[in-house]
Design goal:
The protein is an alpha/beta fold. It has a domain of 238 residues: Alpha-Beta Barrel (TIM Barrel). Helix 3 packs parallel to helix 6, helix 5 runs parallel beside helix 13 and helix 8 packs parallel to helix 9. Bound molecules: flavin mononucleotide (FMN). The site of flavin mononucleotide has 30 residues, from strand 3 and strand 9.
Length: 376
Amino acid sequence: MADRLHTPLCDMLGIEYPIVLAGMAAGGQAQSTAPTPVKLVAAVTNAGGLGVMGDNFANLDELDAGIKELRSLVGDRPFGVDFLLPAVRAEVTTTNKEEIYAQIERDHPNHVAVVEELIREHGLERAGLGPSEPMSTDLLNRKIEVLLDNKVPVFAAALGDPAMMTERAHDQGMQVIGMVGAVRHAERHVAANVDIITAQGTEAGGHTGYISTMVLVPQVVDAVAPMPVLAAGGIGSGRHLATALALGAQGAWVGTAFLTSEETNIPDDHQQQILRGQSSDFTTSKFMSGKNQRSYNNAVKQAWADSGLENLDMPLQGILQEPFTRAAKAAGRYDLVGNPSGQISGMLNERRPAKDILMDMVNEARDTIEGLQKHL
Ligand SMILES: Cc1cc2nc3c(=O)[nH]c(=O)nc-3n(C[C@H](O)[C@H](O)[C@H](O)COP(=O)(O)O)c2cc1C
């Protein structure tokens, strides 16, 4: 039996196994509820995968401190940081959230009424807007400066186009991963000169597209060859990893499965939804951010569907929801918060250390690939 599972991408990234922890942020700015806190990212990197940290930091100083703490835990081993770079944003002329909210109240009173009714119906105490700065090109640029200053080994860009920073990243010796949900996005990322593409199928947790992993991955592999591709969306076992390799990917970008780890900081309600839910409990909606996102079904998602209203564009929908979401969190009602998670939850039912999740995936993938020989 071969004693390891290794692809050319592993050498490119300097890792042992072709498994990457998806950088995940879930609408919060706190490490205390982060899906990928520093300790989980370090655990995956130290187990031989690539840990990627999601953007759960209140401000640039905390982001900088988080990167430095991570580096102190992993030494010379590689790691990444992921930001959302939304491609389509509603036109906002100010970074003042109160002003944006006032604009929403003027332009979209029916949407505000849905939120007010949710607060009333669930007996919550209305919360104000959070302190975080709304997403803007200027804020993104300042965050990217922090990554460049720290020479973070890998930058992962979700949703949008990283063209504005790939050249500077390469100058710093960094590698860039671009995420895509369709072949046309992959072509844009190749033009932006990224190093690796993640092809994410619709079954994924969080922001996601409309094409399944099985269908998307080989098309992206063919479209961007010889650029290496990571498969994402619904990968939760070694059988899935073996399949991803068979589809031509050189590794897997794994999100929801690592949310069953002991090291994640997602609230207990969210982790229990993943451990107990069926695949059909995780559907998509735009109610959280204005972009298509897969999460556990709850009363709030249903209320938006029942309203018949189109959700607002990013970042307006997230700001619109804040008074409710912050009120629900303050009341400990994490069942009323949108909890991003994927369809793979239906076969995840054990909470374990991240290292065990990773090694079981590696070992099962190897056994699967070897077992397939019997069909020849
Ligand atoms: C809780 C959660 C938060 C996420 N946040 C982000 C994010 O901030 N940036 C990003 O690139 N992808 C994010 N994603 C998507 C993941 O990067 C990844 O593509 C997805 O989890 C893969 O599918 P899987 O969940 O089936 O493993 C998130 C996913 C989840 C479940």
